[in-house]
Structures are given as C-alpha cells and as structure tokens.
Amino acid sequence: MDRDRDWVKTILPHREPFLLLDGVTELEPGVRAGAYWRVTGEEDFFRGHFPNLPVLPGVLIIEALAQTGAVALLSLPEHKGRVGFMAGVDKAKFRRKVVPGDTLLLGAELVRHKMGVGFAECTARVEDAVAAVATISFAVG
Predict the structure, then answer these.
(1) Are residues 108 and 63 in contact, defined by beta-carbon separation less than 8 angstroms?
(2) Per-residue confidence at 123, pLDDT binned at 50, 70, 90?
(3) Structural domains in the chain (count)
(4) pTM listed for this prediction
C-alpha cells in the first residue's frame, strides 16, 4: 500500500502547513498505520530551529506520530469525517536527531480503543535507527 498526501486528506482534517504526513504505507483500520514524512529543510520552522544547525523539533515528531495514529483510528467507518484530538503523550523518548534530507518513517499501533478514545504505541525511525518513541492517546471529537 502506498497512499499519497491527497489520500491522507480524505482521512485527516489537517491541511498545509500542518499536515505532516506525505503518505501512508500501511493501514489496518483500528489496528495500525505506517506513514512517512520527507523532511526537506524548506519547512518554515527551520529558519529558527536552529539557524546553521537545522533540527526537526521533537514536538513535531510527536505530532507526526499522532497524525499516523489518527489515520489508524479515523479510518474506521464509524469515525469517517471526524477529528482526532491528541489527549496525551507518555514515555516520549528522543533517540536521534532528524535533519533535512531525512525521511521519517512513522508507525502507530493502537493498543486500546473504545468509545472514541484510543491509545497508540508509536515509533519514528530514520532508516533503521529509532528517532523517537511515545505512547499517544487520542479522543475522537
């Protein structure tokens, strides 16, 4: 499976400049999703984070993981057209810098979801190296 950014927009309400997923590579609705973000260096936040040493802010890695988890949850027929809100982040760890030119490979596995609330175990990688991990919770509104 390789779905592009336009397809992602059919699931997520996010739009540029805050839609961070360039595509979805894996989807089992209500179970897991895999996605990617090509970090180009042209993103506006790199002007200030940091001049002469561009590093992707960790909070945006978490947001990209949350968007990946939201794809898994919002792709369920009962959530079609709804919005997923990040409700919490636990156990976030950052293992490696993400810099322009990297492709961030994002994975989210829903470990629980019921009545519009979900919890996902998430991992962001660059190639084979783990960049970040977190447990992210969502509420469907």
Answers:
(1) no
(2) very high
(3) 1
(4) 0.97
Quick check: is 55 in a domain? yes
Which CATH number is 45's domain given?
A: 3.10.129.10
Catalytic residue annotation: 49
Question: 77 is written with which tokens?
Answer: 């027929």
Q: Does 42 map to a domain?
A: yes
The domain of 114 spans 3-92+110-132
Query: What is the pLDDT at residue 29?
Result: 96
In a domain, residue 137? The reply is: no
What is the pLDDT, as a whole number, of residue 16?
95
pLDDT score for 116: 83
Give yes or no for residue 102 having a pLDDT over 90: yes
Query: CA–CA separation, 120 vs 92, rounded Å?
Result: 12
Q: Nearest-5° angle of CA 11, CA 12, CA 16?
A: 130
Residue 138: inside a domain: no
